[in-house]
Amino acid sequence: MRTPILLLCMALIGLTACEGRKTMKRSLSESIKTYTTSHYIEETNYIPEAYREIDIDTTLSNGFNVKIKTFTNMKTYIPKSELKDSITYNKKYRAINSEVVIFHKNKKVFEDIIDKDFLISENNTIKDFALLSNIRGVWLNQYQNYENKVVLDINLCTVESYDCKSMKLSIDKNGNYTLSLTKENLL
């Protein structure tokens, strides 16, 4: 007789102990889920963080003087976002522009800002590529300069990769210029 009463008491204790509480694991996962949906965590980095400028002044034996000032455009950037562990990482790559001034025998023949807008206006076929890209460099090609013109090499690359389009900007002594894509990748 004692055994059935003991079993009945144990069954009652077992049934009353199961009151439907959440387990710690379930409670923690629900808490994390509500926190991440109600709190938006975002980290933003600008690349480069500060203004940078490089000035190059070159005088050639053919009478040309080429001044290239490459600088960070602090107002324009190319955004890249990545979601990782409920945190949104935003990278904003600041645009790189180059101001080019060319003199031929002390007479200014060319002055312009080489940026994505300039490249797209001269060659519309690169528009889709240029929207996700940044100028990696504008420099004087000293091996392709002739008596009546200078050649600048321009590299436009997508951010976070080495997918690049290389171009040549040829400027003659009268200020006329042509922009052409090259087959070779300059980087």
Automatic annotation (TrEMBL):
Superkingdom of source:
Bacteria
**Organism of provenance:** Winogradskyella wandonensis
This chain belongs to the protein called: Uncharacterized protein
